[in-house]
Amino acid sequence: MARTHGRGGAGARKKNKKGPTKGSGNKRRRGLEGKGPTPKAEDRVYHAAYKRKLDKQRRDSGRHTKELPEMVVGRNPVIECLHARVPGTALYVAQGTRNDKRLSEAVAMCNSRGIPIVEVPRPELDKMTGNGLHQGIGLQIPPYKYADVQELLERANEDAAPGMFVVLDNITDPRNLGAVIRSTAAFGGHGVIIPGRRSASVTAVTWRTSAGTAARLPVARATNLTRTIKEFQKNGYQVVGLDAGGEHTLDTYAGGTDPVVIVIGSEGKGISRLVRENCDVIMSIPMTEWVESLNASVAAATVLSEFARQRRAQ
């Protein structure tokens, strides 16, 4: 069989004028494709801004949800809130609700205070309250406006009497908080400070327990109680922690006439370790041996009453 020479043969290889090139397997094309915009620094897990964002989310978690408007339902609870001067923003009444003395009283009080009365279909009120146990009536309460700790210090400095504050640590019952607010107001205190997290907040229950004093006595939230205590100390305050086994009792401590901060923990947990270590004085309340402890609000009222007595006797 004759061999084929030159171009045009059946077994001849077609030549490329530009020379042979190796294929990239489409890798070059994929490498040249755009990867989209560069993520923000706070979205990159390895960046410091991402860690700051997470820290802020942890600080804010569980707080803003509690600062939404609250709905108090039921005729007796609504009446109690209105008598306690809770600042309602609207009274919702279900259409077709049977009238009685309590409903008439609620409507009359709202009219006298300029609180709007809104009539809504019953299914809508069911949806707003999350259940059908509202008895045809609901009072909407706005989020409580907390004061700033520095603002409380400035207000106290303007008063002729030495500043007196109560700091609550590990108090989660809103009734306890309301009772402490009431006692602090009754005995000449200037305000109450609570932690920003893991603490009772000012709710409708707090308002009712405070018997309306929450409208006049400021409550502040502190991000860090230890830092807040140190700030009071820098401003000349003596920080007294209530706990068992202290170097003073209420009978032996005579510093209630000076600017003072009273730190009160829960009946079970007491004061947190770091907070306790930063108190200037640990003081206990003398009581019968077989009684282990007092409720936080009772303890607060006892100490506040004694300090108020020392100030009157000065």
From TrEMBL:
InterPro entries, per database record: Alpha/beta_knot_MTases (IPR029028), Ribosomal_eL30-like_sf (IPR029064), rRNA_MeTrfase_TrmH (IPR004441), SpoU_MeTrfase (IPR001537), SpoU_subst-bd (IPR013123), tRNA_m1G_MTases_N (IPR029026)
A single BP term in Gene Ontology: methylation
Provide a Gene Ontology MF annotation, just one: methyltransferase activity
Arranged from A to Z, the UniProt key words for this protein are: Methyltransferase, Transferase
Matches recorded under Gene3D superfamilies: 3.30.1330.30, 3.40.1280.10
Q: Which CDD domains match?
A: SpoU-like_RlmB (cd18103)
Extent of Basic residues compositional bias: 1-30
- Mind telling me which residue stretches traverse the membrane in this protein? none
Q: What NCBIfam families does this protein map onto?
A: rRNA_methyl_3
The record's family statement is: Belongs to the class IV-like SAM-binding methyltransferase superfamily. RNA methyltransferase TrmH family.
Kindly provide the name given to this protein in its UniProt entry.
TrmH family tRNA/rRNA methyltransferase
